[in-house]
Amino acid sequence: MASRGPNTERGKAASSRSSIKHGLSSDAPVIPERESDEEWQRHLDGTIESLQPEGHLEAVLAERIASLLWRIKRAVRYETEMTSQSIHDIPDDMAVAARYAKGALRIPTEESITLDKVGALITRRLLPSGEVLDRIMRYEAHLHRQLTQTLHELEALQARRHGERTPLARLDISGPPGS
C-alpha cells in the first residue's frame, strides 16, 4: 500500500508548513521564525476592535480582513527583503564582472570596479527585479481586491443591522496608476 502522507499530529503539522518559503502564499497567519504570534494577536485584536463586529458572520469577516491586512504587510516585507538581498549581492556580482573584464576583455580590475559603478548598481537595485516586482504587484492587487470585497460585505452587514438600506451592488473601479 502506498504512503498517503504523515500519520502523526506532529508529522501533519510539519507537513502543513513544508511548502512555506517566503510566505507570500501561506495560509498560516504566522510564519514560524519570521513572524511573531504576539504581533499577530495584537494586529488581530486591533483590527477587530476597529471594526466592532457583532455576531458570528461579522466576526468571521473581521478576522478575514485582519488576515488580508497581515498578508499585505508580509508582501511589503518580502519586497524590502528582496531589495536588500539584491543590494547585498552587489560585491559578488561586481567580482564576477571584474574577473570577466580582466580575463576576456583585458580591463584592469580598478577600471571595472569604481565607486560610480557601485553607486549606479545600488540605484538600479532600489526596486526588486522586474519579475519579482511583477509578482509582488499581482499579489498585492489580488489581496487588495479581496480586502475591498470583504470590507464591503462587512459594511453592508453592519448597515443592515442598524436598519440602513444597502445597495444590491457596488461598483469599484481601479486600475494601474495613470490609466
Describe this structure as you would to a colleague.
The chain is mainly α. It has a domain at 38-161. Helix content is 66%, strand content 0%. The chain has helices at residues 9-16, 37-51, 55-88, 90-104, 109-112, 115-124, 130-161. Helix 3 (55-88) packs antiparallel against helix 7. The longest helix is centred in the middle third of the chain and has 34 residues, at 55-88. The relative contact order is 0.09.
Task: Produce a short descriptive summary.
66% of the residues lie in helices and 0% in strands. The chain is mainly alpha-helical and 179 residues long.
Topology:
Elements: H1 9-16, H2 37-51, H3 55-88, H4 90-104, H5 109-112, H6 115-124, H7 130-161
Helix pairs in contact: 2-3, 3-7
Query: Which oligomeric form is depicted?
Result: single chain
Number of strands: 0
Distance between the termini: 57 Å
Helix content: 55-70%
Shape: elongated
Percent of residues in beta strands? Answer: under 5%
Radius of gyration: 24 Å
The stretches of 5 or more residues where confidence is low (pLDDT under 50) are: 15-23
The helix-and-strand class reads: mainly alpha
- Number of helices, counting only DSSP H or I runs of 4 residues or more: 7
What attributes does this structure have?
about 180 residues; mainly alpha; 7 helices; about 0% strand
